[in-house]
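yo

u said u wanted the structure for the complex thing, so here. seqs first:
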Amino acid sequence: MTNQMNIAIHENIVRIVTIAPEGRLDAFSAPKFREKVLGLIESGVKYLVLDLSQTPFMDSAGMAALVSALKQCRQHGGDVRMVWPQAEPVKRILSLTKFDRVFAMKNSVEEAVGSFLGAIKA
Amino acid sequence: MNHQASRELSHLLDEVNTNSPSDPTLALTPDGSAAAAITLDIPAEVQYVNILGACACAFLANLKQLAEPEITLYNLELAIQEVSVNIATHAYANSRGRIHMSAILSHQPLKITILLQDTGASFNPAVVPQPHFGELQEHGYGLFLVTQLMDEVEYKQIDGGSVWKLIKNLPVSVNS
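structre next:
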């Protein structure tokens, strides 16, 4: 009879990063936003929460940057959750352009992170 | 702005208020109520174009009878932003230039007319495809938004440039 015990330890660390543009996401600021997203993806992040809760204005260049982020995450096997903006006009634009069908929309960062964790466990 | 382009713009402004004097800064509508206008001229660069939409919205900010002001002003700002970015990045893709904006507030019906003029390369809005909604499409939403958010959108090539005319009928609050 042996008293030996093998202990196997596996650690899974999933990086879920929230990126929150606070202020206008437009043709002027979108390149900086894209650069930040690219930097995160190059560092190995593939699960992104795009928190628009503090984004009061967004034009089509800003929207293009969001789609680009989603494409890049998916290309790396990841995904994106988007937190609804607080500003009602921005919400309406997301609905008008049907971005709320392209992105998985969540009401808070916590809900978005929880959604990722649920999906990853499954 | 060259002389011919200036005359063209003046003609467009006159179309807004047919009884208005040639000076658009204070025109009279047919019923005699005052209409106001502002003009602004900025470098056509993306770091400045937000000034145009913000300025047009500030122009309407004290309009007490405006219904849903947050939505209406946002949509106006966004439409101006989209056209201005288009001018800065496409009309002036290979050159530097300026954007000249006139905003005319007229009454009965209450509406705002925005004229955005450039001297860059011409553009054909008819060839811009509609976005494929629900797909991972990055570009093509700008002109769609302008046409959805404004009541009338017109693009004209004039001598030495182009003019976009955007008209938004302003909703009036029932309590006003």
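Helices of chain A lie at 30-42, 60-75, 88-96, 99-102, 109-121. Residues 60-75 of chain A form the longest helix (16 residues).
cya
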